[in-house]
Model the fold of this input.
Amino acid sequence: MKKHKAGFVNIIGNPNVGKSTLMNAFVGEKLSIITSKAQTTRHRILGIVNGDDFQMILSDTPGIIKPAYEMQTAMMDFVKSAFEDADVLLYMVEIGEKGLKDEAFFNKIKNSAIPVLLLLNKIDTSEQTVLEAQVQYWQELLPNAEIHPISALQNFNVKEVFERIVELLPEAPPYYPKDQLTDKPERFFVNETIREKILMHYKKEIPYAVEVETEEFFEDEDIIRIRSVIMVERDTQKGIIIGHKGSALKRVGVEARKDLEKFFAKQVHIELFVKVNKNWRSNTNQLKRFGYNK
Done:
């Protein structure tokens, strides 16, 4: 009989390298929201994959940036925590990238005592000669890392990387119940789904000034009833979120409802409201309330 393996597999990298796409591909569910905008992922999200003799606890973290305000500092704290408990580290880069935006994080990877898999993503957009040059570049820069060219979006080489991670997991009993998919509650995924639609449909500063809080989540046998509040920092932003006669807010609600019905496999009724919460991104108490500071 095989011994059981279990461990934390933490994914880090610069913004927009495809970390969330890979996480969702491994888990087989959409746990992390995905958009083309930087800073889409704000929290550390766990996705749990179970096999008969293993449990892989994947961790998607915010893209590494130089913080400009308090919320971004809290986001980088989530990345720091990913170094502390990792059994396997996935460092994700894309073709043409030269290194992390934070030198201290990069040095941690360089000197890591745990297995490091460097995943060279988006190879479907590159020619073979460019790919070979990139592999050589990273081999010289990080001689301790295993390099795996992949396309998370096209699912190329993803299965092989998954199998390699399972090989590297330490022997351990499961950390979570075998039927558990994530460490986050239902309301978190409601908030993230709404925020994804805002990232997709609004420009400039609006998506970054927004936080979502689900005040009510009632689940009956046939339907889930949700009431969520979209927080913005200024009155002008509130008007933009709502749109002409409420049209923009209605679009967010309709698209979020469709995604949530797929996620929960049940009919969803959602009510959205918009409130001004001045300068919440720089307010320690507000950040704690939204789960950024412990």
User: Anything to note?
Assistant: The longest strand covers residues 223-232. The CA atoms of residues 118 and 147 lie 5 Å apart. The chain has two domains: 5-168, 186-289. The beta strands are 5-13, 45-50, 54-60, 88-94, 116-121, 146-149, 211-219, 223-232, 267-276.
